[in-house]
Amino acid sequence: MSRSDKKRIALTSLSIALATVLAAGPLAAQEVPQDQGKNDMQDQIKKDDKKDEKKDEKKTNDLGRIEVTGSNIRRTDTETASPVQIISKKEIENMGARTLLQVLDNLPAARPAQQDFKSLFTGSDGASQANLRGLGAQGTLVLLNGRRLSYYGAPAGFQTQFVNIDAIPAAAIERMEVLTDGASAVYGTDAVAGVINVITKREYRGLEVSATTDKSSRIGTYGEHQASITGGFGDLDKDRYNVYASLNLYRRDAIPLSDWYDKKPKQYYINNLNYIKNFRLDTGSAPGAFNPGSYFAFDPVTGKRKQEAAPGCNNVITEAAGTRCVWQTWLNNEIDAGAKSDRATAYVSAHFLIGENTEAFAEATYTDIDLRANGGTPRAYGTTTGNPTSWFSRNTGNNVNQFFYPYLGPNNEYNKASPQLKALMGGVVGLQYLMQDVGDHYYGQRNTDKSYRVLGGLRGNIGDWNWETAFASAGSHSVTYQTVNVDLDGFEKAFGPYTIDPGTGRVIISDHPAYKFGENSAANAALLRAAYPTFDIQSWTRLSTLDGKIEGPLFKLPAGEVRAAFGFNASYESFYTPGNTDAANGRITQQGGSWFDGKRNTYALFAETVVPITKKLEVDAAVRLDKYPNFSTNIAPKIGVKYQALPELLLRGTYSEGFRAPNLAESGTGGVYAQLGGYRDETRCSETNAIANLLLKSNRSGDVDLGNTMLNSDCGRTVARMTQPNQQLKPEKAKIGTLGFVIEPAKWLSISADYWFVYRRNEIVAPDFTKPEDIIARTRFPITDADRANLAQLADMCANAATSGVTCPGTLPTYSVGNVASVIGQYKNRGRTLVDGFDIDARSRFSLGDYGKLNIGLAATIARRNQAWYGEDTGWAYGNYIGYYGNPRMRATLNADWTYRQFTTSLFFNYVGKTKWAWDHFDEADNNPDTCTASGVAVSPGQCKGVPAWWTANLSLNWQPNKHVHVGFTVKNLFNRLPFYDPNSFLGDASDYTSNYGRVFSVNVGYKF
Fold first, then answer.
1. What pLDDT was estimated at residue 1006?
2. Residue 500 domain-assigned?
3. 451 beta partners
4. What is the spatial distance between Cα 166 and Cα 186, in angstroms, rounded to a whole number?
5. φ, ψ for residue 810 (rounded to 5)?
6. By CB distance 3.0 to 4.6 Å, which of 427, 678, 786, 1003 could disulfide with 386?
7. For the purposes of burial, counting CB atoms within 10 Å of the CB of 962, is it exposed (0-12), middle (13-18) or buried (19 or more)?
8. How far apart are CA 319 and CA 31, in angstroms?
9. What is the DSSP string of 292-323?
10. Given this model, what pLDDT does residue 932 score?
């Protein structure tokens, strides 16, 4: 052996030691020696994660060869042309992650995605996603032991089908392998951004229990708790079988608004001056105490609102419109701050050796998730004077359904308003009343998800060729239960029959309704349960697959062996959401009976080969043929090259092409009939704010209160939304490439750097209702009584300049149009997306002699471009999004792990770079350092230049006094950094990557029997 060959072996041994032996951070480059000969790390390597795989290979008489994520070919050198990042179980513990979602939050290549506890009322409620490169869950393939899982039952936004990563068995995870390169040629069409392969233990003997609990120093009700037990028996070497099972229990405690409402960033309260005041904690009636409510009417001449507290009110306040009887808004709402989640995941794995060359294997996974959130305050009866609730429904076509809380007529037995108030509208009055009959825990939301996967297969070898085949069946049943919406029939039974005022069109309830105002009773509670029923949305997904492959040597070249793999995959996929008949007929407010019903068979053939051109140059080529219904067979190629330029320097690069057929939600039968939250209508937003800003100049408290209530109220409204499937969609196609190197200038240091790009065209997207070209049709409400009352209040203020202190302009601001009522759009092929950047990974290992070992790791993703081509008319007009809101240029992690005797101390930093507040250069015209605004509202004065960079640190100490006991203590957010104000977040803080929990303390204990 030459001197250079010896040096190369030592250097690549260092790489694999850094990746799989050391707790050196979440991104470790796998570098395995081609010859695992006599080197000083051999003993340590045998103790790492690959021990089980090598046992597997021993059974097939193919020593030293293992399978790496991103390739079907077994090899001795796992440093493929594609960059693979490996996160061991120990590294997961060191970063303080308790769930797979939290692991991904600490990977620079991953971007924020849907989180289960922040997903309520989104359409895919109660589930979490993976999102590599910011290309979305539809571009990120999630595997369990190299094979697919079934999609979650409710697609995100009713479009994006994704794997719920909360359903993956956390207790059985041995490591994660993240391929940050397109792998459509190997795994299938949806691996454009990369692959996350969660790998469980191959075999386990004995019994192990562990428990973890996390508590916050700032949010008293926050808590995450886990308990797991893993047990197994049988030795593959001696007994020729192994069976083990793992059970993981997880609970996240609910966080009520009472523990959250006063802990938002300070600027939130400056921008929302009435936020805390509106809870009426100091003036309102206590929860559970009877409140008779208030009456109101409008002056027919001026349009001004007049109001008065109902007789018997003990909590009277005086506003510009008159007296009002107020109640405390109960702070038990858990929708915003955090829902309670219970998860139970069971995993069983079995391996049996048959003869000398065959192994049977099987695994089963079952997950039961139950997420609940209390909806808070009981429903209030508040006569509608502004925009009614509006929504589309399946069986009412393009007609917008509407619901008004009715008025009380002049002869209503509960109309006890004063004669003066009654006289304003011919005896008709509006009512504000708190209906407490069903209690404080009736309203809210619950999500359940029951998912499974069972798999059985055989693997073995025939001579030098390895083969494997398996059949898997996976599925999920997801149900969303919501108790917030009105059932029109049930509501009319409680308050009808209705009449219509012929002159004004006002809806008026029965003079003697079945619901009895003024009392809390079981009869009233039964009526309210029918008026506000628990509405359920059920979804089923199924995925059955049969796959097979064979891999082995073709022939030898002077530089080495040419190996190849060939295989097939056949799958059946179905997605069914039947909808609800009452909702489909428009009888349940805000629920349109969205439904989907689709199924398809898909087939694939693939081949791959690795060719050593020279001792230093290796080429890896793959091709996959996918056949989807209604589309021609797609050919997805991939080629990779690696070149050992120097003993210390490895060069590598890949090119591949991706393909994604429209999923069953996008092009099947059905559609989205629902609502769209946060719709921004620039016309109404600017007109309402002009009125509000003038009112805020007044010296009169009533004017100021109204101005605070109006400010930004029309800048993000909920409107009826219809999104139609599109059976004319073209498949997405993509070109993906990487180019990089791995260098090892010293035994203690390994550095890798890779440039990556993804160019995706014909991207399938939901309509962007902020863009006029995406709206097929739009309707508006007329100007309402509430609008006219606002204008009357403004006119009164201006007419009384002596008391208000405001000199008004000659022409007062007014309303030219009503608010948007509905929008209709359709899924479409948007055009093109281009993203690229650099991944950098540096790992070092130091021996401290008697003081143990120190490992230091740095990983970073540096984004270069994120551009979108929406069409020929716009081109690349929106420019490069990098550096704008939601697209930081850099995300990075830094970790240091010190092992000394029985202790391991880990310090983990997570960094996200700064951005502008504007979404793009067009938005920047209105939201920039000079305006000191984002989304048209003020940001914190010290943050006018943009979203600040953000970092947090976790510190952990793990103690293992013997092979049985493990004790760990972690402080997350060590420096107690609190989030900044973010107007773009519905919570008011940068909750995608910051935490409002403050410093969190975590304790972990485990015992192996």
1. 94
2. no
3. 367, 476
4. 25
5. -60, -40
6. 786
7. exposed
8. 72
9. --EEEEE-TTT--EEEEEPTT-SSEEEETTEE
10. 96
Identify the sign of the CA torsion 73, 74, 75, 80: positive
| Whole-number Å distance between alpha carbons of 123 and 141 | 21
**What is the token pair recorded at 918?**
């504007």
With a CB cutoff of 8 Å and minimum separation 6, the contacts of 984 are: 885, 917, 934, 935
Calpha distance 127→948 (Å, rounded): 29
pLDDT of residue 322: 95
Task: Give the number of C-alpha atoms closer than 13 A to the C-alpha of residue 300, restricted to the C-beta side.
Answer: 11
Does residue 520 form part of some domain? no
* Sequence-separated (6 or more) residues with CB below 8 Å from residue 155: 123, 124, 161, 162, 663, 665
Residue 345 and residue 452 in contact, taking contact as beta carbons nearer than 8 Å: no
Rounded-to-integer distance, Cα 313 and Cα 325, Å: 6
Query: From CA 984, how far away is CA 935, in angstroms rounded?
Result: 7
Q: Give the chain's domain count.
A: 1
What end-to-end distance do the CA atoms of the chain give, in Å?
46
Burial of 964 (0-12, 13-18, 19+ CB in 10 A): exposed
Q: Is residue 545 part of a domain?
A: yes
β 316-319/322-325 pair status:
antiparallel
Between helix 682-695 and helix 701-710 the angle, nearest 10°, is 160
According to DSSP, the β-strands at 401-403 and 764-765 are unpaired
Region label for 421, one of left (φ > 0), alpha (ψ between -120 and 50) or beta (otherwise): alpha
User: Do 87 and 582 meet the contact criterion of CB atoms below 8 Å apart?
Assistant: no
Give residues with Cβ within 8 angstroms of 144, minimum separation 6. 168, 197, 198, 200, 365, 453
pTM of the model: 0.84
Q: Which structure tokens are listed for 507? A: 């809806």
In the prediction, which pLDDT does 157 show?
Answer: 66
pLDDT given for residue 830 in this prediction: 79
SS3 content of the chain, % helix, strand, coil (to 5): 15, 45, 40
Sequential DSSP letters for 684-728: HHHHHHHHHHHHTT-SSHHHHHHHHHHTTTTSSEEEEEEEE--TT
What is the extent of the structural domain holding 130? 84-258+337-375+446-483+536-668+725-766+827-913+949-1008
pLDDT for 391: 87
The Cα-based distances of 860 to 141, 264, 895 in angstroms read 22, 30, 12
Q: CA geometry: angle at 198 spanning 195 and 202, to 5°? A: 135
Residue 121: predicted pLDDT: 67
With respect to residue 351, please indicate whether it lies within any of the assigned structural domains.
Answer: yes
- What CATH number does the domain containing 862 carry? 2.40.170.20
User: What stretches in the chain show pLDDT beneath 50?
Assistant: 1-63
* Neighbouring residues of 929: CB distance < 8 A, sequence distance ≥ 6: 944, 945, 946
- Cα gap 792→362, rounded to integer Å: 73
Q: What is the DSSP letter of 19?
A: I
pLDDT, tens only, 362-391: 999 999 999 999 988 889 999 999 888 888
The amino acid at residue 447 is: N
The angle at the Cα of 33, spanning 839 to 191, to the nearest 5 degrees, equals 40
Bridge partner residues of 960 (DSSP):
none
Q: b/e string for 972-981 if b means 16 or more Cβ within 10 A?
A: bbbeeebbbb
